[in-house]
Amino acid sequence: MTDYPVAEKFVSINGEGTKAGETAVFIRFSGCNLDCSYCDTKWANEKNCPVEYLTSDELAEYANNSHVKNVTITGGEPLLQRSLHELTEKLILSGHNVEIESNGSLSISELSKQENRPTFTLDYKLPSSGMEKMMNTDNFNYLNNNDTVKFVSGSLADLERALDIINEYSLTSKCHVYFSPVFGQIDPAEIVDFMIKHKLNNARIQLQLHKYIWDPEKRGV
Length: 221
Ligand code: SF4
Hints:
CATH architecture: Alpha-Beta Barrel
Largest sheet: 9 strands, mixed
Number of helices: 7
Shape: globular
Strand order of the largest sheet: 3-1-2-4-5-6-7-8-9
Order of helices and strands: EEHEHEHEHEEHEHEH
Distance between the termini: 29 Å
Bound molecules: iron/sulfur cluster
CATH class: Alpha Beta
CATH superfamily: Aldolase class I
Number of domains: 1
Radius of gyration: 17 Å
């Protein structure tokens, strides 16, 4: 059975995504293949980050004991874990809604074809992240209307690039589309103005709730 490197696990509320505001179990794996300029979880990606190695049975037991239906698997980059389907399947079969938060660089093809399929929230990394060249746009072929593409935007140039991608891949007719400001870098009102100006229907702005409820630097929330 696979051991997963867990940097932290906790119960909180979903700060973003379609289940924002609902309670959720968070499982954060250590390690990421990107290095975004604005990363707020760099600590979980450091080689010396303390981790607890847990099996899918142990993680499912933790989720079951919480009596919380939503489980968000995040990182770092969770798709770096081989056999991730072993964990997602176990959680789904025990009655959880499972969401994978991925940075958009690794293929979701295999996992999206599983019978017990999790939902995906994929980032599309915009120019200010410094990581746009790593994006895997083939993933857009595997999205359905429960999935989300999230554009974390830090500038007007980011918003304009997001608009190009939304149009090029018809994202608003395939899945949820969210804009999220890089905390402290762009006024959320600028995003709203942009959405109105470009008649962006079927897209939403979303603020990271946990950064408003708790100290923005606080972990484990
Ligand atoms: S993908 Fe996420 S975890 Fe990885 S460097 Fe970027 S923001 Fe940080």
